[in-house]
Amino acid sequence: MATVAPMQPPVSPMDPAWVPSPLYRMSLEQYEAMIASGAFTKRDRVQLKNGYLVEKMTELPPHGAACDATDLMLRPLIPTGWYARIERVLRIPGNASMPEPDLAIVRGIWRDYASRYPEPADTAMIVEVADSSLYEDRAMAGIYGAAGIPVYWIVNLVHRQVEVYTNPGPGGYASRQDFAAGQQVPVAIGGRQVGMIAVDDLLP
Q1: Any residues with CB less than 8 A from the CB of 82 and at least 6 apart, and which?
Q2: What is the pLDDT of residues 90-124, one digit of tens each?
Q3: How many CB atoms lie within 10 A of CB 2?
Q4: Of the candidates 49, 101, 111, 29, which has an alpha carbon nearest to the alpha carbon of residue 70?
Q5: CA angle at 55 for the pair 171 and 153, rounded to the nearest 5°
Q6: 17, 74, 145, 174: least surrounded by Cβ within 10 Å?
Q7: Which domains does the chain have, with CATH numbers?
Q8: Cα separation, 25 vs 18, whole angstroms
Q9: Nearest in space to 154 (alpha carbons), one of 167, 143, 141
Q10: Count of CB atoms within 10 A of residue 58's CB?
Q11: Cα(39)–Cα(27) distance, integer angstroms
Q12: Rounded CA gap, 129 and 113, in Å?
C-alpha cells in the first residue's frame, strides 16, 4: 500500500534585500589593482570603505546645493599651502578605505597628486553633506578619526546642523560639537582657526 508523504513547505522566493554572509573583505592593494586593470571605471559608482565595496548614492538637489555652499564658503578661508578637493579619492591604508568625500582640504597643490592619492597625513579636514547618508557618514567618523584626520564635518541636512568632530585617536574622534542654525562654526586648518562660517550659509 502506498504511503502519502507529507507536503513540504514551498521554497521561499528570493528576497532581493538579502545580503549573503560572510562578506568578502578586499584589501586596498586588490582594489587599486582592479582599478588599474580597468575592471572598474568612472561609470561604476563604487568606492572602498573599511574593506568593502560600497555603491555611491544618487545625489539629490539639496545635497548638491549644500556641497556647493560649503565649497564657496570654505575656499576664501583656506590658507596658502592647502587647497580643496571635491569628490576626489582619499587613500586610507590603515582602514582599507578609498572614500570620495564631498570635500577634503589637503596640503600642497593639485600637481602634488598627479601620480598618487592624498592620504590622512596630507589632510587637514574632511566634509560630508548628509541627508539619506547620515548613518553612513557618522560611521565614517570612526575611520577618519582612527586615520588621524584632524577635523571632520558633517553638514547634517536632516537635523539642520553642522557636526564637528575633533581630537582623533585609534577609536575615532574623542570630541563632537553640534552647531545649529543661527550659530557660527569655527574653521580650523593646519592646527589653527582661520575663520568662522554661519550654519545658515551652508544649509539649503
Answers
A1: 105, 106, 107, 108, 124, 189, 190
A2: 999 988 999 999 999 999 999 999 999 999 999 99
A3: 4
A4: 101
A5: 40
A6: 17
A7: 59-201 (3.90.1570.10)
A8: 18
A9: 141
A10: 8
A11: 15
A12: 24
Show the 3-state SS of 148-178. CCCEEEEEECCCCEEEEEEEEECCEEEEEEE
- Considering the entire predicted model, what is its pTM? 0.85
User: Contact, 47 vs 32, CB < 8 A?
Assistant: no
- Tell me: pLDDT of 11 over 60: no
Give the span between the Cα atoms of 183 and 201, in whole angstroms: 10
CA-based nearest residue to 77, from 200, 204, 199, 190 = 190
Asked whether the beta carbons of 120 and 106 are under 8 A apart, the reply is: no
Q: Look up residue 143 and give its amino acid.
A: I
Residues 6+ apart with CB under 8 A from 8: none
Per-residue pLDDT tens digits for 137-154: 999 999 999 999 999 999
Percent residues over pLDDT 90 in the chain: 68
Is beta strand 82-86 parallel, antiparallel or unpaired with respect to 123-130?
unpaired
CA distance to 47, 51, 145, 187, per residue, from 176 (Å): 26, 26, 11, 14
Q: Rounded to 5 degrees, what angle do the CA atoms 86, 92, 98 make?
A: 55
